[in-house]
Amino acid sequence: MADFNFLLATRLNQDQQNALRVLENVCRKAGLNVYLTGASMRDLLTTQPVRLLNLTTEGSPLVLKDAVVAGGAERLSSRAEPAGLFFSLLGCRMRVEAARGGSIVEDLRSRALTLNAIGLSLNPGSRGLPLDPTNGVADIEARLIRISHAYVFLEDPVALLRAVRLAARLDFKLEERTQARMESAREGDYLAQATPQARGQEWEAIAYEPDPAVVLRELEREGWLERAFGAGVRTSRMNLAALSKLTATLEAWELLGRAVDTGAVATPFLMAGLAAGDQNRLGQWMPSRHLGAGWKKLQAEAATLEKKLLAAGSGGKAGLRGIFEMLDKFSPEAVVYASLNPSNAKSGRKLREFHAEAMQHRQRLPLSLLRALGVPPRSQRAEALLRPWFLRLLAGDTISDAEMTEGVRRAVLAQQAPAAAPRVAVAAGAGKLDAAAGGKGPAKVRAAKAPAAPKRAAAKPAGHAVKPRPKAKVKAKAAKRH
Fold first, then answer.
1. Which of 135, 164, 181 is the last residue of a domain?
2. 2 and 130, same domain (yes or no)
């Protein structure tokens, strides 16, 4: 059996691990047992990138609302029935839902597909203990999509879409009896009984797929797309070309230190070509309000970005820093959207040229040093440490690799020093989360100027006398001791 604590430590990035710790602490204080479930466990075991932290609590997670906000949660939305919270924490998407039936085992047994019915305890005393009541791990090893019981599609019609989506993404086969049940569901038109809430959750899941275009084409080929989302919802009205390039473009900008909400970028490409009625209906169905209601704002923000980019001065080393700081005033999602779908050929070319030149400087940053010092290179902490040096490189400053390496090393050690004065690490490049991100995207990381060598305290002259304390104070302290 897999060592699940090892999987958590190696397959989740540092920000995801930190976000889990925050939620574990919040749940422990609230007296709720919490488990990693569903998509997160499936992706851990299939070696897919873990893009969503899906958690289940034994009890309503709605009591955690204030605590997760205090812990740094952004874009929080909630659902009363079944109880659930949806939010972003440290740039990580999180979904926390109440266990159906009250217990985690009952919840897992009630799930439609076995590969989604695996849980992992995150509770003190049992952390890392797996739960697999439907033998989902074996189905993952066999690369099969299998329903957990014969009446799944009758009880949860949207599982039809989920099965097709996961088969398309993972290149798994539909188990023989599962395939037969799907055909029966098609003949009985089970999907007509699906709730808007369930359809909206699946529409959102498509937006977060690594390649939504592959899933959409397969759903349309199988005849499920219009049945589920409306007669006018066709791939011919969507920008599949942009969706096909989405993951590669996201990864390119993430290499420059930008954390991007994938679904926020994908949603305009899914929705913009649809009729207004379809746009409104699907937007209202989506559980994450910033997706359903915010995609038009993202398009407008990207258009403003392009205008600013065209008006900015061109070329030169100083121009690189200027463009970087200008882009930093926009959400990462708007930058990626403008890269994928520029309204102006010149602005698109300018973004590509900036990215190519900025990456050359980015490659000089001492990422291997951060790894050696225990700082994950793509974490928020790493970005705060590297940012002042990256800005100097973009501005054309002459910096040797040795100077930059020593500067970053000092900043890391200053953070680790237990006796460091409060906020000294911030001045040394540690940065802080910008709480005023305004809901545009994951919290931005900001830092102070590049660190300078620490000043040494002036040595006291030899024989320097220590000023005696007043006798009254000495006597008073002696009285307290006795």
1. 135
2. yes
Q: In total, how many domains does the chain have? A: 3
Beta bridge partners, 51, equal: none
391's enclosing H/E stretch is helix 380-394
Residues 427, 337: one domain?
no
- How do strand 53-57 and strand 144-145 relate by DSSP bridges? unpaired
Nearest by Cα to 73 from 57, 81, 61: 61
Supply the pTM of this predicted model.
0.77
Alpha helices (runs of H) in 175-275, residue ranges in sequence order: 176-187, 196-207, 212-221, 225-229, 240-244, 246-254, 262-271
pLDDT digits (tens), the chain, 482 positions: 468 889 999 999 888 999 999 999 999 999 999 999 999 999 999 988 898 899 999 999 999 999 999 998 988 888 888 899 999 888 888 999 999 998 999 999 999 999 999 999 999 999 999 999 999 999 999 999 999 999 999 999 999 999 999 999 999 999 999 999 999 999 999 999 999 999 999 999 999 999 999 999 999 999 999 999 999 999 999 999 999 999 999 999 988 888 889 999 999 999 999 999 999 999 999 988 889 889 999 999 999 999 999 988 655 555 899 999 999 999 999 999 999 999 989 999 999 999 999 999 999 999 899 988 988 777 888 889 999 999 999 999 999 999 999 999 999 999 887 644 444 333 333 333 333 333 333 333 333 344 444 444 444 444 344 444 444 444 444 444 44
Domain membership flag for residue 216: no
| Contact in structure between 111 and 148 (CB atoms under 8 Å) | yes
Three-state DSSP class for residue 55: strand
Answer yes or no: do 330 and 372 share one domain: no
- Asked if residue 423 lies in contact with residue 374, where contact means CB atoms within 8 angstroms, the answer is no
Among 284, 355, 332, 340, which Cα is nearest to 88's? 332
Domain range for 376 is 364-454
In this structure, the answer to whether residues 13 and 131 fall within a common structural domain is yes
Identify whether residues 307 and 382 lie together within a single domain. no
Read off the tokens for 63: 């009591």
Q: Residues 43, 122: one domain? A: yes
